[in-house]
Each structure stands twice: as C-alpha cells, then as structure tokens.
Amino acid sequence: MALPDSNLKSSMPNHLTIGLFGFGVVGEGIYRVLEELPSLNARIKTICIRDPHKPRAAPSALFTTDAAQLLQDPDINLVVELIDDAAAAYRIVTEALRSGRHVVSANKKLIAEHLPELLRLQQQHGGSFLYEAAVCGSIPILRNLEEYYDNDLLHALSGIVNGSTNYILTQQAKGLDYAGALKQAQELGFAESDPSLDVEGWDAANKLALLLAHAWGIVTPPEALLRKGITRLRPHDWAHAREKGWRIALTATATRLADGKVGALVLPRFVDEGHPLYGVRDEYNGLVLESRLADRQFLSGKGAGRYPTASAVVSDISALSYGYRYAYKKLRAGTGGGLSDEFSLDVFVGYGEGTRTGASAFDEVYSTFHSGSGGYITGRITAARLRATAWWQDPDVSVIALPEGFTAPERTRVSRGKVRDLLIAEPVA
Amino acid sequence: MALPDSNLKSSMPNHLTIGLFGFGVVGEGIYRVLEELPSLNARIKTICIRDPHKPRAAPSALFTTDAAQLLQDPDINLVVELIDDAAAAYRIVTEALRSGRHVVSANKKLIAEHLPELLRLQQQHGGSFLYEAAVCGSIPILRNLEEYYDNDLLHALSGIVNGSTNYILTQQAKGLDYAGALKQAQELGFAESDPSLDVEGWDAANKLALLLAHAWGIVTPPEALLRKGITRLRPHDWAHAREKGWRIALTATATRLADGKVGALVLPRFVDEGHPLYGVRDEYNGLVLESRLADRQFLSGKGAGRYPTASAVVSDISALSYGYRYAYKKLRAGTGGGLSDEFSLDVFVGYGEGTRTGASAFDEVYSTFHSGSGGYITGRITAARLRATAWWQDPDVSVIALPEGFTAPERTRVSRGKVRDLLIAEPVA
Ligand SMILES: NC(=O)c1ccc[n+]([C@@H]2O[C@H](COP(=O)([O-])OP(=O)(O)OC[C@H]3O[C@@H](n4cnc5c(N)ncnc54)[C@H](OP(=O)(O)O)[C@@H]3O)[C@@H](O)[C@H]2O)c1
Ligand SMILES: NC(=O)c1ccc[n+]([C@@H]2O[C@H](COP(=O)([O-])OP(=O)(O)OC[C@H]3O[C@@H](n4cnc5c(N)ncnc54)[C@H](OP(=O)(O)O)[C@@H]3O)[C@@H](O)[C@H]2O)c1
C-alpha cells in the first residue's frame, strides 16, 4: 500500500555538523555508528582528544587536541561531549551552550552537579542540551519522563541505574569476590575511570538527581541525597541473601510522600524473585515506575558499554536534527514539592564484631541476630533518623533495604521498648 | 534552586476542546481523569453515547446520542473516540479527520484495517491522529518507536500485546479452565465486547500491524499476518508446559530477515523462566525489542483496564496540546522491505486422536511423541510451509512456538528422511 508524501516534507531534519570531544569507549562508538548511518544527516567534522600520540581507528585529519578548534568553528552546530575529565567537560559544555550550540553529553556527574546553570545557559542562548545516555544507558527514560509520564501522576520510581555495580553484584552473587568482580567490570569498559564514582553510589546519586528533575521537577545537588554504595557489603549479607533466595541490587529510589514531597535515596536492596528487578543482571539497568493511572511499569536495557550508550547518544542526535529540546514542564510548573527525609524504610543493618549499632533509632524492630562475629537488626526506621545515626556511614556497617512488600515475621517482631534487652541477650542460632 | 522561565513560554500548550465518543470502560475513565487534571488544558464539551437511558456518572447536560452535534461543533478541535461499534467508529474518525480535527482513539481494529486511509486524511486535512492506547495499553511503545528507536537498527520485537488473553492464560496456568478464565476476563473489563477478537488472536494481529508500521514502516492488512489464537490449546499442551517449567503466552513477533524483509506472526509461545516475558502476568503486556546498538530492551505495563488505557489516552491528549503528531519517518523513508514468510520457526505441534499431522513440512524434526490420545512433533519449519499445511488451522491441532533459544535435544533430533518411520513407530513413553 503506497503512502502519499505530500505535506510531510516540512519535518525534514536539519543538518548537524558535529564537534566530538572524546574518542574512548563511547566516543569511538559514536564515530563508528555515524559512519554507518548516513541517513542521520549528521557528520563529524572534528574530534578533540587528550593524547595526540595514541593510534586511532579513524583518519588522523579528523583529530585535534585543541578544544578551541571545535568551539570556534562556525560550521559546528552540535558539540557531543564524551570525555572523562570533569573540569574540562564543564568548560566545554558551558562554552558550547554559551555560543548557542546544541550539546549532547553522557556525563551524569557534570550534569547533575551543574543542572541549574545548564538550564539557564540553554534558555539564555537557545541551544538544546540532551543527555539521555547519562541515565540508564540505552533506556529512554528521560525522554519518556518528559513526554509521556507527563500527566500520569507518577508516585514512585525505583531502579538499578548503574551498570558496573550491577555487573559486580551479579558476579558476587555467583561467588566471585568484590575485587575480582570490580576488575572484570573495568576490563569490560563498564566502570567509570574513577571506580569510587560507581561503587560508592555517587554515579547512582547523580542519575537519581536527573531522574528527580525530569520526573517531578525537583532540582537537588546529588550530595544532598541519602546514599550508600556497595563497598560495605559483608559476607554475612550475601549469606543472608542466599538463605532467603534474594539478590542484592544497588537501587536509586524516589517516592512521592503524602505531603507532596519526595523521599529519595541510593541504597543496596534485597530483591526477591517476584520483583521485576530480580531479573536485571550484569550491566543491565532496570526501572520500575509506579503511577496512579498506568499502575506499575517496568523498563530494562543495557546501562553501559560502547554501543548501548552510543544508541542513546545517537537518538539524541536524531532528536536534535528534528529540533527537539527537553521542555522541563514539571520544573516550570513548579509543582514538585521538594525533597523530604520524613519517610520510613524497612532495612537490614549488618554489623561486625565490636561495632556498636544502636537499635534505638528504629520505630520498630522486626528481628535481631547477634553472634561472636557481629549480627544484624531488621526493622523500620525513618530516613531522617537513619541519616542522623552514628553508625550509618560506619565502614563496618551495611545497610540494605528489605524487599519491597517485606512482611516482618510476626513471631520475632518486637516493639521499640524491648529492643535493648534483645540486643544484650544471648546470640540466637 | 530557582529556575529562570524567560523564553520557554513559547511551548505553552494549546487549549483543547474535546468531543468524547463512548462512556464505557475507557471513556468514563477519561472523563474522570480529566476532571482531576485541570492542568491538562483540555476540557470535555460533549459526550456522545448510544443509549440515552443508561444512568451516567456525569452531568446529563454533557450527553447526546447525536454524533453530528460533536462533529459539527466549531468549538471542538479534538475528537476522542472510545466506542465499541466498528462501523460507527470508522465514520466518526474519518469525518473528524476530514474536518481537520485532531483525533485520539484506542481502536486498534479500526486503525489497523484502515491505516493507509487514515494516514492520507491526516496529510490532506492537517489533523493529528494519535493512538498510543491501541497498542499495549499503558506502555508507550508507539511514541518510542517513532521517536526513540528511530536510528537504532531494530531487528526484532516480540511481545504479549493482548491483556485479556494473557489474563486467561495466566489463570489457565494456575489450573482454571478456559471458559471460566474467559468469563473472569470479561467481568474485569479486559475483554473486547466480541471475545473472538481477543482469543483468536485478531486483536494481537491488529496491534502487530500497527507495530510494523511504526517500527519499520511496513503497512499490511492484519488479515495477511500468520495468526493463531489460544482457543486450540489442548490439556496436553498445558501438561507439556508444566513438565518443562514453561508458561504459554500469546505473542506477536516480528523479525528483520537477512534480505531486509520482516517475518511477522501471532502465535502462542512457550516461555521459559529466563525470558523477560515469563514474568508478564494477568492483564500485563510486555515487549522485548532487539536492536543492533541497544541490544535487548524490555518494557512492561498494564495492557488493559480503565485507568491503564486512560493513561495512554491522556498522554496522547497532552502531546496533542503541544502539537505532537507521528512523523511516520520510517514509512516515508520507504526503507521497510515488506513482509516475508521465508523464515524458520521452532515449533511444537500437538494433535488429537485421529488427526493427521504431516511432519513432511518440517525442515528438521527434533522429537515426536505419539500415544492413543494423540501426540506432538517438535521441529523446525518455515512460516511459508506452515501456512501451506492442511493442518495449520485444524481445530484439533495446536501450534506453539518453542522457547527462544530452544536447543533441540540431540538424542532425539532426527533428520527429515527418518520422520515418516518415527511417526509410524510405537508410542514413546
Ligand atoms: N562507558 C560507558 O559505558 C558509559 C556509559 C554511560 C555514560 N558514560 C559517560 O560517557 C563519557 C565518556 O566515557 P567513556 O567510557 O567513553 O570514557 P573513556 O573510554 O575513558 O574515554 C575518554 C575520552 O576522553 C578523552 N579526553 C579526556 N580528557 C580530555 C580533554 N580534556 N579534552 C579532550 N578529550 C579528552 C580521552 O582522550 P584520549 O583518548 O586521548 O585519552 C578519551 O578519548 C563519560 O562522561 C562517562 O561517564 C560512559
Ligand atoms: N477496555 C479496555 O481495557 C481497552 C483497552 C485498550 C483499548 N480499548 C478500546 O477502547 C475502545 C472502547 O472500549 P471500552 O472497553 O471502553 O468499551 P465499552 O466499555 O463497551 O464502552 C463502549 C461505549 O461506546 C458507546 N457506543 C457504542 N456505539 C456507539 C455509537 N454508535 N455512538 C456513540 N457511542 C457508542 C457505548 O454507549 P452506551 O454506554 O450507550 O452503551 C459505550 O459507552 C474500543 O475501541 C476498545 O478496543 C479498550
């Protein structure tokens, strides 16, 4: 069946001339993909790298180490920033926006830390700044939060947003030790150049900050978010997970509270078999969205690696060629109620020999276990009180959210008053 | 952190005045949702229904049975069509588009059967026609295929696209019989008024036709698609699934072939535990997309029911208020290679006592089982040859795709030449 093509010509894409910064895992991927997709109407004119002596799988005439050569080229209307140097990335992105150029970046740290300024520069100078690859790699979550979940009263999102920690945790669940698993993730190109960004949960916090902006119009410095990474997980925690048939995932979670504010945090979480995140393995990411009309939705896909990340960058380039920009409707509507730590969590708190972990911060203690080499407490605690405890960031304490819908074992559920007695009682086998 | 709001005013939404057709499961849902979302800048002016005597949970002044009152009202710039009368829906949608109005519909049958005409009417008269709710209810698949998977060389999609059959199959897997499960689905409002649309796979075929148009720019009459529903599933098939730890799902599948054409069909499928569709239960839908860069992606969400369906309709209304229309880029690019039946399938073919099921159509037979009350063949067959067999639509024959990545048991794998001998051999226990 033939299709008439009369008046759709108006939506022909604009031609984009690209200045590419970075030719590493993702940058070289973008170069290769654009070579194969002439239909995209986008061409790389110059590539800026750091080291002029590295051999490159592209014609040497394309390369320079002089950023100005790209940023001052009147031909270049799109800057694609894919480097691993935070300070340089900041200068490149802000200068490109200041000159009215469009920018695509995958640099969640830069974007999360400078969001208000980057929004202002877009508005003042007219460039469009897209960064889908910065959150959950290949999963089109930002675009969907902007365009699709716009009116569908979203009340929660929770997900695995960091591919390298998920890869590490998947290997650990199979019995590999932490150091070996981290090394593998680095060799496979999933990990950030500075691994603490991943394993301490900073990368997840950066992504959560961006999710909050696009989901509810909340702008927050990522440092303000309650955050714990995966470096404190103890062999006992893994044993507990195995015993219960659970996995451990590093999750970024945000929930709209009764007062309209949003509770948000990055925390390892036990995930049981019925939960959509249970099947999210290796470098995959997954996001569960809960909204009033649509109920529960789930999206998963690769969150790291050359081509999955490139797929999101290429989608941004394509969208730009059609004039797309994030509308930040929720931010402009100003209805996002801000963040709050006044919400409750069901957590497992593991501690080592000689560590003091007070149970007095808990509203309710479900169970306690203690032995010569440490123990754990499960119970309900508010985020605010968790943050205020002396032990929350103790290197020998793990804090892991209990599975969603966890039902406390009634037998061992003990009220707050009895906790102190229990804690000094004999170890339970 | 405050956000400057200088030049974003240009993206203020247009006001929409809605003429709503239908006040059933979905129509009444939309009415209620719009009442609660004044921010949407869309207002229902008149509602057209069939029966003027039914009590309605809305002011009676809103209602009419006269379609012309909506279609000729110069105030109404958006027609939302949510009725269950195919012929009337066709007249309403085409007339609304012919008058240049925007249209939102959830009527997959209408849209799939008249796609070329509906495209032409949009182009000739300028109205925008959106129908996200028509495919996978709340899952934003059409918008993502249009906008996001645009350049990411998609090579396959496969999914559970019909909520009521998935609900029925989920209940059957728990032991309920077919008739009881169908009745439940109807009572819950998931089933079409004419249940054969669901259970014979017609609804899935309609949705597959729409997916093909937005994924690859292929326009096909849904009747042309190879299709088998769930009415032929036999108790033996369920026993086989249970024995293997598989589920049965009705799936719509499309795969890009080596020659650029696409092989597409609707067929029940055994799904094993490692597959993303395994966890898609009840009225949920799920879609797996495979693409060259992003690799495998998975989306799931509710595919039927009042509010999940309404969530997609509301998203379309919101998008329209910002001037959105499907660009049908792939259709216009004309790169979709068309459909082909020259692709291979791994299938399980079950048959009853006295039924003749030839194995000669198979390229390879993996195993055969025969007993007094019938039996089955598993093997590899091309879609073209399956379609040409005498038994493919036999009421006593079930055809179920084997799990993805199914590895034929080497012991029993038999080449084509030996099949006839096996078929007349003694039953295998
Ligand atoms: N890898 C992933 O899976 C992934 C996923 C999502 C997002 N990201 C983000 O994508 C960005 C790039 O990551 P990557 O993994 O591709 O990094 P990478 O492999 O380490 O490559 C970094 C590239 O940046 C270049 N570079 C560093 N400093 C520079 C400077 N001052 N000027 C010009 N070029 C400079 C390097 O040049 P030389 O080649 O000369 O050393 C190298 O080509 C990061 O923001 C990262 O967070 C990555
Ligand atoms: N239900 C779902 O979960 C779901 C999911 C996806 C898509 N859809 C699609 O959404 C549409 C509506 O489904 P539904 O489940 O809401 O149907 P429904 O509950 O059966 O309601 C149908 C409505 O259409 C009205 N109607 C029928 N013929 C009419 C005519 N000629 N003029 C004006 N009104 C007429 C009926 O009027 P009376 O009230 O006077 O009888 C009734 O209000 C269908 O296209 C369906 O395929 C439904």
Automatic annotation (TrEMBL), chains A, B:
<dbReference type="InterPro" id="IPR001342">
    <property type="entry name" value="HDH_cat"/>
</dbReference>
<keyword id="KW-0521">NADP</keyword>
<dbReference type="InterPro" id="IPR036291">
    <property type="entry name" value="NAD(P)-bd_dom_sf"/>
</dbReference>
<comment type="pathway">
    <text>Amino-acid biosynthesis; L-threonine biosynthesis; L-threonine from L-aspartate: step 3/5.</text>
</comment>
<dbReference type="InterPro" id="IPR019811">
    <property type="entry name" value="HDH_CS"/>
</dbReference>
<dbReference type="Pfam" id="PF00742">
    <property type="entry name" value="Homoserine_dh"/>
</dbReference>
<protein>
    <recommendedName>
        <fullName>Homoserine dehydrogenase</fullName>
        <ecNumber>1.1.1.3</ecNumber>
    </recommendedName>
</protein>
<keyword id="KW-0791">Threonine biosynthesis</keyword>
<feature type="domain" description="Aspartate/homoserine dehydrogenase NAD-binding">
    <location>
        <begin position="22"/>
        <end position="132"/>
    </location>
</feature>
<comment type="similarity">
    <text>Belongs to the homoserine dehydrogenase family.</text>
</comment>
<comment type="pathway">
    <text>Amino-acid biosynthesis; L-methionine biosynthesis via de novo pathway; L-homoserine from L-aspartate: step 3/3.</text>
</comment>
<dbReference type="Pfam" id="PF03447">
    <property type="entry name" value="NAD_binding_3"/>
</dbReference>
<dbReference type="InterPro" id="IPR005106">
    <property type="entry name" value="Asp/hSer_DH_NAD-bd"/>
</dbReference>
<keyword id="KW-0486">Methionine biosynthesis</keyword>
<feature type="domain" description="Homoserine dehydrogenase catalytic">
    <location>
        <begin position="140"/>
        <end position="317"/>
    </location>
</feature>
<keyword id="KW-0028">Amino-acid biosynthesis</keyword>
<keyword id="KW-0560">Oxidoreductase</keyword>
